[in-house]
Amino acid sequence: YHHSAEDYAKLYIQEVVRLHRVPVSIISDRGAQFTAQFWKSFQKGLGSKVNLSTAFHPQTDVYHSSIQMAPYEAFYGRRCRSPIGWFEVGEVGLIGPDLVHQAVEKVKVIQERLKMAQSRQKSYTDVRRRALEFEVDD
C-alpha cells in the first residue's frame, strides 16, 4: 500500500503538530519526500521554513551525534514507532518500575554524552581563544 502526500500531511498534523505545534523551521535531508513541491508548499502554508541539509554536513545533526540517539528517543524515552511501520521487530513493551528505571538510565546516559560533547566543543574553542588584556580606564 502506498501512502499519498495527503496521507502524510494528515499524519503530520495528527502526530507532529498536535503534540509539538507547528515548527518555525525544519532541517531535513534531501530525501524525495522533503524536496517534493507538495511538502514545500504544505510547510509554507503552515508558516514553516524547510532547510535542506547538505551531504556529510555534521552541523545539521549535532544534537543527534552528541547524544548518540534520535532526538525523539531522547525526548520520549523510546524509539519512534509510526503507523507507517517504522518499528523494530521484537521490541518489548515495558511497564511500571521497569519503564521508570529505563527512563532514568537513559537520562543519565544523555546527560553524560552531552557533557562529553560540550567538553569537546570547549576544547575546539579553547584552541582559538586568546586571553583578554585590559588596561586601566578600559
From TrEMBL:
Taxonomy, superkingdom: Eukaryota
GO terms, molecular function: nucleic acid binding
PANTHER family assigned to the protein according to its UniProt record, in alphabetical order: RETROTRANSPOSON, TY3-GYPSY SUBCLASS-LIKE PROTEIN (PTHR45835:SF91), YALI0A06105P (PTHR45835)
Protein name as annotated: Integrase catalytic domain-containing protein
